[in-house]
Amino acid sequence: MQTTLARRQRRRRALQRRPQGRTGTLVGQFLAIVLVAFLVTTGLMAGTGALVAVSAYNYYAAGLPDPVAALTNIDFEQQTVIYDRTGAVELARLGELKRELVTFDELPGETLDATTAIEDKDFWVNPGFDPIGIVSAGLDTVAGRPRGASTITQQLVRARLLPPEAFEGSTYERKAREIIQSIRLTQAFPGEAGKKQIITAYLNQNFYGNQSYGVKAAALSYFGKQLSELTLAQNAILAAIPQSPTKFDLVRNAQEVCLENVAEGVECTKFKLVVPQDSEIVIRRNHVLDLMKSRSPLTGSKHTPAEYEAAKDEPVELRQQISADWKAPHFVWQVRRELGQMMCPETPNDCNEVDLGGFKVITTLDWDMQRTAEKWVYVAARAPNAKDTTAILTSRKIPKAERSWILGLRGHNINNAAAAVMDYRTGEVLAYAGSASYTSKGNKKFQPQFDVLAAGWRQPGSAIKPVGYAIGVDDKTLTASTMIMDVVTNFGGGFTPTQADKLERGPVRVRSALQFSLNIPAIKSVIMSGLDHVFARSKEFGLTYPKTAIPVLSMGIGTLEVHPIDLLGAYNTIANGGVRMPRRVINSITHDGQTVWPRPGDEPKGTQVISPAAAYIITDILAGNTDKKVNPFWGKWAIYDGATRRPAAYKTGTTSDNRDVAAYGYVAPPADKTAPALSVGVWMGNSDNSPNDGKLSLDTSAPLWSAILEEVTKGSKIAAFKAPKDIETATVDAFTGLKPGPFTTKTVKEFFVPGTIPTQKETLRVAASIDKASGLLWQDGCEGPQVTKGFFNLSEVEANFPAWQKANAAWGARAAKGTGVRGAKGTRTSYFYNGSFAPFGRTWGAPFMPTALCPLYTPPVYCDPFAPTPEPGVITPPCIPRPTDDGGGAIKTLKPTQKPKPTLRP
Fold first, then answer.
1. What's the burial of 634, exposed, middle or buried (CB within 10 Å: 0-12/13-18/19+)?
2. Cα dihedral sign, 192-196-197-198
3. Cβ atoms of 585 and 362 closer than 8 Å
4. What pLDDT score does 143 carry?
5. pLDDT tens-digit profile of 57-100?
6. CA 412 – CA 658 distance, rounded (Å)
7. 786 vs 771, 789, 793, 852, CA distance in Å?
8. d(Cα 638, Cα 832) in Å, to the nearest integer?
9. CB within 8 Å of 806: residues ≥ 6 apart
10. What is the pTM of this model?
């Protein structure tokens, strides 16, 4: 007899070998099988048709096990054990302590009625399947609207009573075998007694989340009650869970409600776990209650409609949970999720093999790095909210040099944090903390068991900017030297964003705009590349968005929500020369020493998302953020090993209302290909999405990112970022980003994707003739001399966008008056970057052209020193003293009483 593991392995291989295509033909075959099955179960077959039908029925029934033996010998117990990457540190044992079996006599009518109401309303009378429902679902699937229609018997058969061979071929062929086996099971266990055995096995094998297998274990783990003690509402919500037990896990959906009157931010010691009434699982519970009004064959009229309605208002309060002895619990949940996708690709959230398959799972987790990440996440999020922050920092051995930024968080309403460490060359997750302190008691603002990294939707803010710029550079729409006007602009729809510091810096190159996180250039760059195009291409970096998300003008500054772990993966793609590696948390799976995974061909394969040159350009820009000479503000959090700065690239993000602060970045890849190339991503905020009290990313997430990355890289060899061979370099004007021209005052060297070095002449500066004496525009007759100078000319800048040009002209009118001139949004003109740091000088690269013409020159009227004194009352025209040569080459002006010296003539 095959072992349970062998059957499961063969089943998985069968799933992976399933052929593609032939959909229409297979659907037809499947519907024919449904018809045959229906005729067999109803006894309506006769004659030659009966022989054909029975032949088809027997073909798909071949090899199916005896349903009596299969149901009787269900194996419920085998633990899966998860280890770190060395195999020496046990992280978790899945499925332990929460397997409880129940007999039918222990099942209350409400438990049974709630289950059949939502899962299979005709369970007690159907032949094991619902032919009408399946045909309808099959047609919907063909029409592109896939949905399920499995009965309770079919679900039990699929989970427990099909051999691996039954999963070979198409989905429709597997479904046919599933239906036939369900019929055989129903016939093998006939009548009401048989139905009781089937539904009892079903309720014993179901996974209900929270490591609970079987409805009895679920009642105990969630409510601390026996089944007979459950309320109507509790029965309904348990019945609602099996559709998606991970998603509907009540503990993971619960919030901790404090029962004490404690000060803001102080941890509560007495609380209760409550699932919010507007959560999806409670809404589904209420749907079950509605169904039970007319679908309760066992309890009948025991409960009135009013009682069902009242049950909808019952709070979902859970018992206090006894934490499983897991290390890196958020990471373990990610491992379990990946195991489900590997072992049960069709039903990953309902896969008993994951917990009870007896596997040994070696993960990617580095236990030392995990402890580092957990330590820093805790001290950043929880220590500032403790009564004695300093004592906690001392106990966690936080150096005094690192304490000031942590102490600075006190009283600023930041209660949670998350962090991950990855190897961007392999996609391996090395450390993972989805919230601070998984086992701590939480509150509304701090929900420690919620995984912010993978389950949370969070706005990335400016942390998204490298992705948008990378797409533009790779598409050759932009270069690192492209000049964009940092000017407050009305982009339409009332969207007129500003920079946090309210400065308008005028012309800036993409490199500076990204390094110093300027908002308006980022928005313009995405518009220039195309909103739909950037939205679509960003998904190639591994980003996912909520189903309702659409491209919007503000997406360039991170208003579309993403999963933080996905954004770290996008940074990994840039760090890895534009190659995206799939995220991995599992290295190997074995059973009794035999390798189950990986098999030959399972090696992870990367996808080239952007060119190596485009990736390096973005990396080189972000690397400036860890060099104080380039960026003294972000450079404060550079990575050091002793006194040596380690080359690293990073970017921060702060949402407009300070709800989320984040930082993502990476160090240069080590020359040793077997050594990890490390990246770190961190998030800080509140579980209830409330804003913090005035703290930006440079005060919060940036130092947290730096602390983690500095510790996990300590002692490793220092490497440098290396440019790819095909990258090109050129000298460009520091202000226009174009080829230097006659009025260039400062130049910089820049990197370019091949074929994108600028060759065009600049249009930002134009030549104009000026009267040197007055500084005004020249016209004939001015005093002179006439000179030629270069001046700002905004008429052709961003010429394809009239609204932008209008804003540019308004800025230019103010900037012509100097810095600090205010605009309509309270902004002020400024040289790049600000008053304290101007790397290219206190200039915009050229003066503004005067608008007035120089005055015409009028020759002076000199006074006659020998003229008689005018008579009283006589008005003479004004005059100026005549200059004279004193013989030594110096011009002197005669005093009114001084007579000129005679000049000798030859």
1. buried
2. positive
3. no
4. 60
5. 777 777 788 888 878 777 655 678 999 999 999 999 886 556 67
6. 11
7. 5, 10, 20, 15
8. 22
9. none
10. 0.73
